[in-house]
Amino acid sequence: MYGGGYIFDEPNKRQLKEEQLHDDPVKLAEFEARIARGEKIEPGDWMPSEYRRQLIRLIEQHAHSEIIGALPEGTWITRAPGFKRKLALIAKVQDEIGHGQLLYNAAETLGKSREAMINDLLSGKSKYSNVFNYPAETWADVTVIGFLIDAAAIVNQVANAKGSYGPYCRALERICYEESFHLKQGHDAFIELATGTPAQKQMLQDALNRWWQPIMHFFGPPDKASVHSQKLMEWKVKMASNDDMRNQFLDMYVPKIRELGMTLPDPELKKDETTGKWSYTDPDWDLFKKVINGGGPCNAERLQVRQWAEEHGRWVRKALMNPNAAKVAPVA
Ligand code: COA
Questions:
Q1: pLDDT by residue (tens digit) across 1-46?
Q2: Cβ–ligand 1 contact at 222 (below 6 Å)
Q3: Is the beta carbon of 61 within 6 A of some atom in ligand 1?
Q4: Out of 30, 63, 156, 211, which could bridge 103 as a Cys pair, Cβ 3.0 to 4.6 Å?
Q5: CATH, range 10-321
Q6: Does ligand 1 lie within 6 Å of residue 133's CB atom?
Q7: DSSP alpha helices (H): ranges in 75-123?
Q8: What is the pTM of this model?
């Protein structure tokens, strides 16, 4: 395990203490006026302690999701069908780890060290996205992840890239460019299976049936049950509510799935053309809670793999931090 906690230098530490002691009402009003004018908040700027705490929580969870999210797809690199798909998958997995890197950097600007974030991931204190706690049983699962989970992530990230915290928005912008390529390769693989042999089509349908509920969960609990949305939307960290994002995803992607002759495992799924709202069977929210709190089918395995990576990569980090100590002593 790492040590470490906050990484501020002295002037910033003083500012953090000041924020934590009292959110000065005059400063708070100035801060909220800046947000209302659409200005970006930057790391050295005054911010309410709750804004800082919420951003750390959200960006850190997002970063963890990227590095844990690389695991189910990573297991398919050696088994991808053909050289073209293998190359695309290697590049995608590498991108996802890079997104984790960008996001950890963005969270570090708020004062929490990378080490403390990794510790909180490994101890189970910090969450990561529900969808990465399910196995990728077949190539069709990888296809559904590449098409629909990347699509869901893009809906969330394109919106939040217009938010208020500069470093997070800039990271999201870059991530969205790369996710758009992921989405294209996922869609291409999806079309190939959907228009392939009956066995390929069936494999895809089975994967869709398995993934539909986790994808509906992905956007978070319904607005009425969302703990953080109201404040995060006031502060323009979240630019749309969980239900609005879910609706936007359904609007954009259900037609694309259906036009390929695939079905979705929800008889209630339909759009009201006058309101533009989709109705659906409420996904099982008790199951969602269980999965995000460590009780999903793959949570333990995912954290074990990360733990292994932390332990086996320690010598590399040590050498990077202190290259001289790693040099082989010259032979006398
Ligand atoms: N997976 C895991 N946990 C989730 C989740 C999901 N799909 N959706 C919600 N939660 C958790 C929240 O983190 C929160 O837990 P916490 O209080 O212990 O931190 C709890 O459920 C209540 O949800 P809510 O109040 O709606 O949380 P939120 O306002 O943070 O909204 C997201 C949830 C996922 C929409 C939001 O965190 C977000 O936009 N995150 C950044 C994008 C991201 O992480 N994407 C995943 C990887 S691509």
A1: 344 455 666 656 666 666 655 678 999 999 999 999 999 999 999 9
A2: no
A3: yes
A4: 63
A5: 1.20.1260.10
A6: no
A7: 83-108, 114-122
A8: 0.93
